Every structure is written in C-alpha cells, then in structure tokens.
Amino acid sequence: MKPRVLVIDDDSALAEMLGIVLRTDGFEPFFVADGSHAVQAFHDVKPEVVLLDLMLPGLSGIDVCRAIRVESGTPIIMLTAKSDTVDVVLGLESGADDYVVKPFKPKELVARMRARLRHHEDLVAETLTIGPPESAVQIDVPAHQVRRQGIQIALTPLEFDLLVALARKPRQVFTREVLLEQVWGYRHAADTRLVNVHVQRLRSKVERDPERPEVVLTIRGVGYKAGPP
Amino acid sequence: MTGRLVAPVVAVAARGWRRVVREWRRSLQLRVGASTVVVTGAVVLIIGLFLVNEISSGVLRAKRDAAIAQVDLGLQDARSTLASVDPGDISGITNALATVTTDLTATGSNAGLYTISIGTANAAVASLLSPQPPISAALRRVVQGGDLAMQYGPMPRPGAVSGTVTGLIVGEPVSTRTGAFELYYLFPLSAEQATVAIVQRTVLLAGIALVVFIALITLLVTRQVVRPVRVAAQTAERLAAGDLKQRIKVEGSDDIARLGQSFNEMAGSLQRQIRRLEELSRLQQRFTSDVSHELRTPLTTIRMAAELLHAHRADFAPALGRSAELLTIELDRFEALLADLLEISRYDAGAARLESELLDLRGVVASAVDASRVLAARHGSVLMVHAGDAPIPVEMDSRRVERILRNLIGNALDHGEGRPVIVTVGADDGAVAVTVRDHGVGLRPGEAGLVFNRFWRGDPSRSRLTGGTGLGLAISLEDARLHGGWLQAWGERGIGAQFRLTLPRRSGDTLDSSPLPLVPDETVSA
C-alpha cells in the first residue's frame, strides 16, 4: 500500500512536478490548489502525510494547518518560500511538524516525508512514567497513548515521539541537535527552532502550568530533559 | 557624642550644597536672577555709599562755615568787652568773661545752638576758667599758639543731665591787652546727625527696594524666555525618544514664537523623512520577500526537473547527459547566489534580526567543521580544530555564527592549496574568538580590507570548488556586526591568511579586545 500524500499547492507546475517525483519515490499523491477546499480534500483523501504551501488562495496555509490540527495529528510538512523566522515559527506554531524551504531538493523532501512516516516497529509493551508524582505523565508506547492522572492527552505523532525520546532516558539531557536527529531524522544539524516550537506545543498539552514546566525541563545552554518522577 | 551629631549635619549640608550646585547648573533662570541681583546690589551699594558720603560731608561743611562765621562774630564782642578790663583785676576779668559768655550765648545764630567756653593761660584766673573735658589739651595748645582750631568730638548733650552727643568745637584765640584768652564754641551736631541718619536710612531702603524689584523683573523676564526654551527642550527630548508627533504650542509672533515655529517645522520635516525612510524600508523588505517567493516556486520546479534528469543521465546520449549535469551544478550556484542576494538585501533593508541564545561555541564550531569535511576531502586539505576542553557558553545566533564559520572555512579551503587549515577557538571573560588559518596563497598588501567587499575576487583565475557567490564574506561581516562582533582578515603573500571572528560573550556588550591575535604567532617570531 503506497503512502497517500495530499499536496496543497496552488502552483500547477510545481504540483505536477511534485507528482512525478512522489510517484517515482513510491507515494500516491493527491492535489488541491485552493486553501478553502483543503480541509474537505483532507477528509476525502485521508492522507498519511500532508505537503502544505503557506501562500495559498482562499484559506492561508497557516489557517489550513490549524484546521487540520484541530481534528488530526497527521504529519504536516510546510513548503515555504520564506526562510524568515517569523514565517517559519508561525507555521510551526500553527501545528506543522517540519518544513522545507523552496527551492528544495526532491531527495531532501522525500527524506523529510519518510522521517515523518517512519513507523514504530517496536511493538513491545512498554510503559514510561515521567514528571513529579502529583502530575505524572504515563506513556503507553505501543498504544500511542499518553495519560496524566488517568486523563488521556491527545498528542500528534511528532509530539508523541518527542515525549517518548525524552522519557526513555529520563536522566539524559538532550541537546536540540540530538533531538533533531532522533525525532525528526535530520542527520546534520538543522533549524533548532523546530525543537523549541514543538517543545512549547508539547508543554501546552502535558504540563499543568506550561510557564513552570515539570514534565519537560529546559537545561539552560544545553537542551531538554524529562522531569524526574 | 558631638561626632555623632555633627556627621548627619555635615551630610545634610553636603546634600543641600550639592542640590544647590545642581540647581545652579540646571537653571538658567536661577543663574541670570542671581547674577542680576549681585550686580545690581553692588551698583546700588556703591551709589548709596557715595550719596551718603556726599550728603554728610555737605551738611558738615555748611555747619562748619556757619560755625566759623559765628565765632568771628563773637570774637569782636569778646575782644571789646575784655579790652575794657584792667589786666590786674581778677574779679573784673571774671565778671567780664561771664558777661561775654552770657552775651554770646544769648546771641541767636544761623549756626544753631551752641555753648561757650572760655579759657586762659593767665594762671590767676585759670582755675575759674579752665575749660571742661570735651576741649582737649591738644586743641587748647593750638589755640594758645594763636590759631583758629576745630575739632569733632563727643560733648555733653545740651539741656540734658547726662549723655553725650557728637559735636563740633571751634576755638579761637582772643588776645587783648588784658591777656590771652581762648574762646571755644561748642556746637552739638545732633540735628546734622539726624539728617544724615535719615539720608542713610532712605538710601538703604531705596537700595533694597531697587534690588528686590530688579530681581523680580529679571525673574519675570527670564521666565518669559526660559519657559519656552524649557518646553522646546522637553519636546525635543520626546522627539528624540521616538514620539514624532510632539509639537510646541506657538502663541503670538515674537522671537520665541518663531523659535517654536521653526522647531515645529523641523520636527515635521524630520517626521516626514523618517516616515519616508520607514516606508522605503518596508517596501524594500516587502519586495525582497515577494521576489523571494515568486522566484523560489518556479525554481523548485526547475530543481526537481533537473534532479530527475540528472538521476537518469546514464540513459541519455553523452551530450544530453552532460547537459543534465551542468544544469544541476549551475542550478546549485544560482540558488546559492539567490539566497545570498536575498540575505544581503535583508541586511540592507535593516530587516535582519538576531535570535540569540546561550550555546557552547565549541558545538557551533564543530558543526561548521563537520559540514566542511566533504569540501576539505575534495581539496585534499587537513582540517584541524583547537577548541580546548571547557565549554564556552556564548549568547549568540548559532545559525549566523555557523554560517560565518562555514564561510571562513570554505574560503580557507578554497585558497589553502591543499595545505592544512587550522581552526582555533579562544575565550576570555568578555569575549570569544575563532581564527581560521590557511597556508595558501595569502593576501597582497591592502587586500585584507577588500576581501569583505561584495563580489570581490582575489585572483580571478583561481578555481573555486565551492562555487562561492562572492557574497559570503560580505554576509559574514554583516552577521558579525549584528552580534556586535568583529570579523578581520590578515594575510601575507606566500605565507597564508588568517580570518578572526570575535564576539562578545553577552549580546549587547561592546568589544575592546580579542582573546586571539589576528596575526599568527609563528609569523611574528619568524
């Protein structure tokens, strides 16, 4: 079964070329050019991964991203022409998992998609617990479920991966570079803002008070670690 | 005990003094007011003293003239009375003298009140006539010598039992055939003194009133001038702080109003200029952003098409295959150039922002070096790093710092002729530095300043494996400046070149020295 990819881009030449490349690399692409039809297309196609251009007619890429995030954790990779901080951070904060800056190399894009689709072959029953007892977070790894005091928390696959990476080695401090490699699959250091933004998003879901984190701790000047149980 | 009491008093006094000094320096009004009061006070004092002096000496002169006239008048009378007495007749003389005294005292005069005293050297009558204390021995000697003499001095208040009053004593010798007598007139000066006192009081009061009025007038006048100036200063401060809407309220059409008008016009023109520049900058940023987006989307399509062709070049005829290769390679260069142009235009538009965080400089150096390993291998150069063991936390934008370092290392490899390239990291309390040293062709004299120019090429004939855009070092320099850091070059023909990046440890700090030398040690000692 080929992974289904929803390409949301209004440039027809780029969309067609993306189609050729994606088919060559073993994906099944679907296309939508208008932002206002994107969410409907997402429902119809049920893709495994979404490629989303930020500059769209109709609904903007940022709004499309938010709309999809409300109902689904499907990996979203932004295609952005702007490497400016504001645009990238805005995209990540609206829920995108990763981004590639135009002009990207097709290999790079495919690698990013594969990293997001990489499924967890580790189906051993494994339960992890992090954070202080009064707000401990339990992670059921094979079931992809996270609970705090019995209440289930909905995380996107990326946020889940990030949390599991930290929880598996509770004493280790992870640098942003290491997290980029383990969670995003970047072999060379990339934009550490990816890590910063997603740690913020993760905290907003798992922490009692995101301003005073207990589950995902910042180690100033180094990186992040799991909160001690 | 006193020490404990004195110390706070001294402190309070010192504080008060400092406040006065500060107020003096700050307030034009106070300075002008004080100077005016001091100068006016001095002038009034001088004029007052002069006036009082003139008036009192005038009064005294008139009194003296009148006194002498009176004495001359009395002298005739006394002489004729005494001339009729026999020199041997003591009681006659005594009676005559009594008559003279009574006559002269009774005579009205325009020299005012006076009393008479007569003295003589005649021992027989001396005991009767010896003049009383106010008439001094010195005065008497002069009169006995036959001259008219005058003396100011205290004398009994006339018509009173006690008390003295300043008076004028005029003595004249009366020589008759009866003997030599001394006739003394004692004029009390109470009326004159009272006059002078009134004059003094009047002048003093007038002077004080004058000084006070002038001080008030000065304050009023300076207030009229200083107040608008203060308003202008406050408005200028607010303008400088960025509130470009600030204006001065202009009333009337005098010089001060003109100052306000000119000020407002200046502020208006400043505001318009700044608005225009802001607008230009915004347009430039917008344009850059738009160009970026518009160019990048088709470029992405081209890129993907080229990669696809490149991947299948083995299936093509040789010319087509090579074309696909060239297309890909040149596309890389084109992309790099576009990226650099956009980056530098972002700097030109003032849109570059620093994203500082505290990171270990060695990590950034390591990733820049790792990213350059492939290039080093292609050049056959060894890439060495001296970074020490201790972490070097620096507040920096790691993306920009890594870009600087990658540029410097790429540059060193390009010009290093396959010889080792050495990266050294140094740090002190306030600053960190990274030097990148190559042992290649080096730089000609004067070129160290040119290398950061846009599109500058040291030697156009040299092969460039990195396909540098010619903007790398220019961007690096801007990146370093954005950090408040330095990027400097040194080079010598045939020995090699060294580039040094110096950054402050905390963003916002100012550099004054670098932990590493710009000129390598081995060349200094050689």
Structural class of chain B, by secondary structure, is alpha+beta
Biggest β-sheet of chain A: count, sense, barrel? 5 strands, parallel
Q: What CATH architecture of the domain at 358-525 in chain B would you give?
A: 2-Layer Sandwich
Low-pLDDT runs of chain B: none
What is the H level of CATH, i.e. the homologous superfamily of the domain at 358-525 in chain B?
Histidine kinase-like ATPase, C-terminal domain
Count the E strands of chain B. Answer: 11
The largest β sheet of chain B comes out as: 5 strands, mixed
**Rg of chain B, Cα atoms, Å:** 54 Å
* Strand line-up in the sheet with most strands of chain A: 2-1-3-4-5
* CATH-defined topology of the domain at 358-525 in chain B: Heat Shock Protein 90
Poorly predicted ranges of chain A (pLDDT <50, ≥5 residues)? Answer: none
Description:
The complex is a heterodimer of chains A (229) and B (526). Chain A is built from eight helices and twelve strands. Chain A is of the alpha/beta class. Chain A has two domains: 4-117, Rossmann fold (3-Layer(aba) Sandwich), CATH 3.40.50.2300; 127-226, Arc Repressor Mutant, subunit A (Orthogonal Bundle). In chain A, helix 2 runs parallel beside helix 3 (61-71). Chain B is of the alpha+beta class and 526 residues long. Among the domains of chain B are: 85-192, Beta-Lactamase; 255-331 and 340-346; 358-525, 2-Layer Sandwich (Heat Shock Protein 90). Chain B has helices at 2-26, 28-83, 90-106, 123-129, 137-144, 190-240, 255-311, 318-348, 361-371, 373-379, 398-415, 472-482, 521-525; strands at residues 115-120, 149-156, 164-176, 179-188, 357-360, 383-386, 393-396, 421-427, 431-438, 486-492, 496-504. A five-stranded mixed beta sheet of chain B has the order 6-8-9-11-10. The longest helix of chain B has 57 residues, at 255-311. Chain B starts with a helix and ends with a helix. Chain A binds chain B through residues 11, 13-14, 17-18, 20-21, 24, 55, 79, 81-82, 84-85, 101-107, 175, 177, 188-189, 191-193, 220-222, and chain B through 289, 292-293, 296-305, 307-308, 335, 353, 355, 358-360, 363, 367, 370-371, 391, 393, 398-399, 402.
